[in-house]
Write a structure and sequence with these properties.
This is AsnC family. The chain has about 90 residues and is an alpha+beta fold. Helix content is about 30%, strand content about 35%. It has three helices and four strands; from the N terminus they run βαββαβα. Strand 2 and strand 3 form a beta hairpin. The longest helix is centred in the middle third of the chain and has 10 residues.
Length: about 90
Amino acid sequence: MITAIVMIDAEVDHIPEVADAVASIKSVKRVYSVTGDVDLIAIVAVPQHEDLATVIPDQIAKVPGVKELQTYLAFQEFSRADLEAAFDIGLD
């Protein structure tokens, strides 16, 4: 699975609507409203690199109220929760 982190700058008056619309896109796994230089961060997961073109410029960028995007591709995922779950044998 290919993961992209999409930083979204939205029109201030439309941030909740933009977040809802982006979250409804099939390949978008999560949308966070955040502090800082951007308004929203979306986590996108697709099977192939080519699929990013149909999700990011063709869908997310065209949501009314989206002003600008920055996209970062993930190379590797690190998660303490995933590591702990992998080694959990169910004993308390």
